[in-house]
Amino acid sequence: MAHIRLGDEAPNFTAQTSKGEINFHDWIGDHWAILFSHPADYTPVCTTELGTVANYSAEFAKRKVKPIALSVDGLESHKGWINDINETQDTEVDFPIIADEDRKVAELYDMIHPNADNKLTVRSVFIIDPSKKVKLTLTYPASTGRNFDELLRVIDSLQLTAYHKVATPANWNHGDDCVIVPAVKNEEIADLFPKGHKEVKPYLRLTPQPNI
Ligand code: BEZ
Predict the structure, then answer these.
(1) Is the pTM of this model over 0.85?
(2) Does 1 have pLDDT greater than 90?
């Protein structure tokens, strides 16, 4: 399969999940999506990751982002493990987990890296916008749990660019100044950024975060 690159259309699929069968694009609808794989059910790091996503449910909802997890385990395994996640992580898993026993989706999204593990998925992340374009890809090894605060930060940045024509500088956090994208002409700035701006260099123009 071809590598999935930023700007590509996210490959569509139908799959069994812990919340029933889905057609991926229909399931995304007019939302954003975060599709993320984990190596296996009933494993310690994965248990903390899925618990964290469940505990961040309001944060994802606030951003109109639907999370969906995947491993090559089956539905019964997912359902039993969800009980453990809920119990140990003090949460309620309310997002679907894809049961990809035949590896159809894992292969479509290149989530199995044979030189790391030839059976299990690595920790892949795909953030997909409402037009079904891939906006971020990320791969972590099995031994490192992902930082979901960072993923929320990236989603905020992607949405600022999509809706407000700003980018975010190094180590940006919610509330910090943003960078006016180069495509915006100087004469458009006053209308687009009524909070003002600072020209550090002609190519480095800062403005207060527009959406707060
Ligand atoms: C874990 O989730 O803890 C894990 C899964 C596969 C390999 C290593 C760790």
Answers:
(1) yes
(2) no
Residue among 36, 38, 46 to mutate when testing ligand 1 (max atoms within 8 A of CB): 46
Cα 209 from Cα 212, distance rounded (Å)? 6
Q: What is the mean pLDDT of the chain?
A: 97
Q: How do residues 15-67 score in pLDDT, each as one tens digit?
A: 999 999 999 999 999 999 999 999 999 999 999 999 999 999 999 999 999 99
Is 46 tagged catalytic?
yes
Inform me whether the pLDDT recorded for 146 exceeds 90: yes
Q: Which residues sit with their C-beta closer than 6 Å to ligand 1?
A: 39-40, 43-46, 142-143
**Amino acid at residue number 121:** T
Selection from 212, 28, 49 nearest residue 127 by Cα: 28
Distance CA 139, CA 26 (A): 25
- State the catalytic residue, choosing from 10, 46, 68, 98: 46
Which pLDDT belongs to residue 6? 98
Each domain of the chain, given as residue ranges in start order, spans 14-146, 164-207
CATH fourth-level superfamily of 164-207: Antioxidant, Horf6; Chain A, domain2 (3.30.1020.10)
Question: Domain 14-146's class?
Answer: alpha beta
